[in-house]
Amino acid sequence: MSIPAKSLKWYRQLSDKKGRLAANAFLVEGAKAIRQIVAGHPEAISEILSVEEPPALFHKYPARIVTASQFRYISSTQTPQGIMALVKTPEDIYSSKLPEDAGKRILLLEDIQDPGNVGALIRTAAALNYSGVILTESCADPLSPKCVQASAGTVLSVWLRRTAQYLEIVRALKNDGYTLIAADVRGDDKPSILSRQKKLALALGNEAAGLTPETLSIADYRVRIPTAPEKAESLNVAACGAILMYLSPGK
User: Is this prediction's pTM over 0.85?
Assistant: First the structure.
């Protein structure tokens, strides 16, 4: 089943948030990332687009064979991988409604604008058994092509919420017994504090400005990762998050 030329534009529009919202779907490119989706949420895949016969693992899904030039037109990557999946958007991802069982490890992302950082942090959260990730509306969209690529297909491995009610949710988590730990280059608390928490919400801030004063003011702890200041004053937010999540994995 091939793609008519007039339909190519619809797939291309999924590179834009407006197009993804209208379609209630997004694209996952690359066999490895698609296998990740198949392993955890096989029902989320609607169809496969490929420049050649898809691998046997994907034969249960409807497939459209496209030309290399058509694939490049749809793809947002500089080096297209020749296969992608159309995936249904997770329920409630753009709402403030949390799952009934939110889990004991939650990652909070505040105004992180680089989609590569957002995707890498989602991937690390999934790998270290965090249950969910809450993002401010000013964060890069977790379903954007660059985020999905950086996540290696793990965007469905944790629950996600990108919401305008971020601070209200953070306060509600504190009221529900979560310890709010803020990553702060000016903090006085040691990272070892993370492993002692039963229910933890770990907050990471903007690449340049860090967390907002509002978040810092309600944090239970402000953790700083010691570095060699004469060599590097601070860490990239994805590296910082990886270290702190490694010190506080979910179970």
Answer: yes
